[in-house]
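User: I'm putting together notes for a lab meeting next week and I want to include a structural view of one of the chains we've been expressing. I don't have a solved structure, so I'd like a prediction I can at least talk through. The sequence is below, exactly as it appears in our construct file.
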Amino acid sequence: MWFAISITILAASGNNIGKVLQKQATRGLPRLTLKPEIIQQYLSCPTWMAGMFVDLAGALLMIVAFAHAPVSVVQPVSAIGLVILLIFSHFYLKERLKFQEWLAAGVAGCGVLGLGLSAEAAHLEHPNFSAMRVLGAFLGLISLLGEPG
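Assistant: Thanks for the context. Below is the predicted structure for the 149-residue chain, given as structure tokens.
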């Protein structure tokens, strides 16, 4: 179960971090339309494409999570992505957070921990899949992003 929870957290992080990167990129891009020259500007923007790639990586990790845990576990855990979004927005976009927002993030994190601790023994098995390898690959993708432009 911990494997699926870890993968779900990584997946939700990827989904939300990808969206933050795309939001950051749109600050310097024109409004999205179906005009080929506008679409080309989006596709040639490194930050926007990095956001798209990280979001897609998160979606692929979510498929892995669903393969190893029931939807009744994966879906609630994926809500932790909002906490990741909050933290990433604070550090990357320099958004100021209130005490109540930090408190809510802590409560959500405890909820995910509680879900993992309450798992049935049958769900605690994990595949012959290196969680460290998955985590390393995901962190490697994130490290490619570098500083905001």
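A couple of points you could mention at the meeting. The chain has a mean pLDDT of 80. Residues 44 and 119 are 45 Å apart (CA to CA).

User: Perfect, that's what I needed.
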